[in-house]
TrEMBL record:
Keywords carried by this UniProt record: Aminoacyl-tRNA synthetase, ATP-binding, Ligase, Nucleotide-binding, Protein biosynthesis
Record-level Gene Ontology MF annotations: ATP binding; tryptophan-tRNA ligase activity
Protein name per Swiss-Prot or TrEMBL: Tryptophan--tRNA ligase
InterPro entries in alphabetical order: aa-tRNA-synth_Ic, Rossmann-like_a/b/a_fold, Trp-tRNA-ligase, Trp-tRNA_synthetase
Entry keyword annotation includes Nucleotide-binding: yes
GO BP terms in the entry: tryptophanyl-tRNA aminoacylation
Length: 324
């Protein structure tokens, strides 16, 4: 059997440039090689573990599927799904919860951070988030998960659960590992950390116009004058320059070192290059979004294919646990 790659993305907004460069382009390389089974999941159930608006969730999750299709993911080669369409994810998560302790979940740094961020939403759903994530991955026997280093504590929980289930009940779950794709880390426009949907003013949407991109890039903090040690914002700009206008980087660096660089010139050139790179995606997206029937069929077909795999995994687990 082919190894399986599983990727999940929360339905908190459309894909941004960081998702595209840090993950989706890597997915496309995997798709072309054809060495892996691929499941790409919009984890909408995970999205309700923190405060959300139902109408926005409903819209966002569909937009992500359209973004994936416009970016080039082929629904015939990959399985594209909504997590909520596969109830077996939640069923398996409950079975997994019997081998993990409350104390283990409460000590996870990601849980503590979310409780600080949302003190009024410290729910059982939030506490069980890593267990559901383990179910998302292991229900497809996925051994490879392309996520950032910040998700490593959750992957360790998935590995623990796989070991405990295998040792206790004789199941055959793999122990999933982080699978880094090229361009994994895309910096935030704020000059601090990585580009993220949850950080205001940190990201560029894949659907942004040239004017919107220009405005966002111009907002990247720089210095009052060129020369000397680069500020975090300037380092971010040169990272983008290396990604989108590599042949022009040395020229801009020399201007900076010579204290003649006009920051707005660098920023506008980067904005133009980003827009030029995104324009084909945006044109494809308009066509795909207009074909609602096609999008519905992709979602329906993905759910049918995923449930076939998920049902078999749950059947195996129930049998091993003495439930059937």
């Amino acid at each position: 059997m082919k190894k399986c790659v599983f990727s999940g993305i929360r339905a908190t907004g459309r894909l941004h440039l960081g998702n595209y460069l840090g993950a989706v382009k890597g997915f496309l390389e995997i798709q072309e090689k054809g060495d892996y089974e691929m499941v790409y999941c919009v984890v909408d159930v995970h999205s309700i573990t923190t405060p959300y608006k139902p109408d926005e969730l409903k819209k966002n999750k569909r937009e992500i599927i359209i973004d994936y299709l416009a970016a080039g993911l082929d629904p015939k080669k990959s399985i594209l799904i909504y997590q909520s369409d596969i109830p077996e994810h939640m069923e398996l998560a409950f079975y997994f919860s019997t081998v993990e302790t409350i104390a283990r979940m409460m000590h996870l740094p990601t849980y503590k951070e979310k409780v600080k961020q949302y003190p009024q939403s410290n729910t059982m759903a939030l506490l069980n988030y890593p267990i559901l994530m383990a179910a998302d991955i292991l229900i497809y026997k996925a051994g490879l998960v392309p996520v950032g280093i910040d998700q490593e504590p959750h992957l360790e929980v998935a590995r623990e659960i796989a070991r405990k289930m295998n040792q206790t009940y004789g199941t055959d779950f793999p122990e999933p590992v982080r699978f880094a794709t090229k361009g994994e880390y895309i910096p935030s426009l704020t000059g601090e950390g990585k580009m993220s949907k949850t950080v205001v003013n940190s990201f560029i949407n894949l659907t942004d116009s040239l004017e919107e991109i220009r405005k966002k890039i111009r907002s990247v903090p720089t210095a009052t004058a060129a020369g000397g040690e680069m500020s975090p914002g300037l380092k971010t700009l040169f990272t983008f320059a290396q990604l989108f206008i590599p042949s022009e980087v040395e020229g801009f660096k020399k201007s900076y070192e010579g204290r003649t660089l006009q920051f707005v010139t660098l920023k506008d050139r980067i904005a133009e290059a980003i827009y030029a790179d995104l324009k084909p995606f945006q044109e494809r997206r308009v066509k795909i979004a207009a074909d609602q029937k096609y999008v519905d069929e992709v979602i329906k077909d993905g759910a049918a294919r995923a449930r076939k795999i998920a049902r078999e995994t749950v059947r195996e687990v129930k049998e091993k646990m003495g439930l059937s």
